[in-house]
Amino acid sequence: MSIHTFTSESVSEGHPDKVSDYIADSILDAHLALDPASRVACEVLCKSGDVVLAGEITSKGTVNYEAVTRQAIREIGYTDKSEAFNADGVKVTLLISKQSGDIAMGVDTGGAGDQGLMFGYATDETPELMPLPVQLAHKLARRLAEYRKSGKESWLRPDSKTQVSVEYDGNTPKRVTTVLVSTQHAADASQQQIRDFIANRVCPEVLGDWFGKHVEVLVNPTGQFIAGGPSADCGVTGRKIIVDTYGGMGRHGGGAFSGKDPSKVDRSGAYFGRYVARQVVKRGFAKRAEVQVAYAIGRAEPVSVRVDTFGTGDARKAEEFAKTFDFRPAAMIEKLQLRRPIYKTTTNYGHFGKTGLSWEE
Predict the structure, then answer these.
(1) How crowded is the C-beta side of 285, counted as CA atoms within 13 Å?
(2) 102 in a domain, yes or no?
(3) In this model, does residue 226 exceed pLDDT 90?
(4) How many structural domains does the chain have?
(5) Which helix (H) or strand (E) holds 329?
(6) What is the pLDDT, as a whole number, of residue 1?
(7) Does residue 4 register a pLDDT over 70?
């Protein structure tokens, strides 16, 4: 069995790309709440005091995009009017048209909204059936947000990134080797104060038995992180696809999730692939499973369905089992109840491995 180290990262809801994702999913939810059949493909760019909304939306519901955008930014925590990017001060630019009729006529008959390939993945190395590195990275990022929003650590700011390295013996995680946390902070917070908080409180709380003196803890390696969020950097939807999925453990078809309604198989196909991969592992066909599904635009039946068990089980039986599921877009949407306004709950800290999501049940 080979000894190797695998690293995954997460980002907070205040990271500029995640701000864009959250606004896009907020707009999607607002439309689905009014019209469950809405077709939404919303892209967002955030930089300094500007937010640009672009894409194609066809819906019977009328949404106040500016109000939804400001509320999403407020929920994340960017309310400081001294910063260029704040909920009340941003300028919102709309570049939105309706869905192309050429695409719509294929989707209207139950076909896929685009061609493409999606992957679902599951592993028995954690109770959530997720890879350990990305699951721990998500928990660290989420805990920072919880402390910030509680007001217990008033120097914390919304933007942060986490990274966890895990040593494996074959497919089995043995120990955490390195934790990296970069968190935005108030100007008057000292590096020592920040390090003590991360190394002595957050890491032990989140990592539990995985934490110990053997773990190298890196905190704000440049020495400070005062300028952050969209005030300092540009954010765009769909740039955190590895954070959103399995942290690099398993392949990715390249399609992003946020801002897309479930007729887009980039999203529904990946969610259903995860659902099926979980069933493969839970039913004992394999310890690790990756499901690939591919589509042609306008066609309901997938072009192909494949299962890889990485030598941890019976690949033939696993694939036969996976093919008993209905991968047609309309069937996936119905099975997972994807026409509901649930997508703001998926945006941050991974689209998988969280409770309350139908593809995780």
Answers:
(1) 24
(2) no
(3) yes
(4) 1
(5) helix 329-336
(6) 58
(7) yes
Residue-range definition of the domain harbouring residue 182: 3-11+136-227
Q: Which two tokens stand for residue 91?
A: 């300028």
CATH of residue 184: 3.30.300.10
| Spatial contact of 41 and 59, defined as CB atoms under 8 Å apart | no
The enclosing H or E element of 218 equals strand 216-219
Please compute the mean of the pLDDT values over residues 240-261 and round it to a whole number. Answer: 97
Amino acid residing at 302:
P
Cβ contact 273:246 at 8 Å:
no
Question: What does the block give as tokens for 311?
Answer: 């030598």
Give the Å distances, CA to CA, from 326 to 174, 302, 333: 37, 9, 10
In 3D space, the residue among 355, 292, 323, 318 whose CA is nearest the CA of residue 129 turns out to be 355
Angle at 305 between CA 300 and CA 310, to 5 degrees: 160
262-276 pLDDT tens trace: 999 999 999 999 999
Q: Among residues 292, 289, 350, 351, which one has the least CA distance to residue 138? A: 350
Q: Which helix (H) or strand (E) holds 141?
A: helix 132-150
Secondary structure class of 2 (helix, strand, coil) = coil
> Mean pLDDT, to the nearest integer, of 234-245?
98
Is residue 196 a part of any domain in this protein?
yes
Query: What is the radius of gyration, based on Cα positions, of the chain?
Result: 21
Judge whether 162 lies within some domain: yes
Average pLDDT over residues 75-91: 97
Q: Specify the pairing of strand 39-47 against strand 235-236.
A: antiparallel
CA distances in angstroms from 286 to 46, 248, 302, 354, 360, listed in the order given: 42, 20, 23, 21, 18
Judge whether 152 lies within some domain.
yes
Q: Both tokens of residue 322?
A: 């996976």
Q: 254 and 116 in contact (C-beta within 8 Å)?
A: yes
Instruction: Evaluate whether 327 touches 111 at the Cβ level (below 8 Å).
Output: no
CA angle 215, 347, 252 (to 5 degrees): 75
Confidence at residue 295, expressed as pLDDT on a 0 to 100 scale: 96
Q: What is the DSSP string of 22-66?
A: HHHHHHHHHHHHH-TT-EEEEEEEEETTEEEEEEEEE-SS---HH
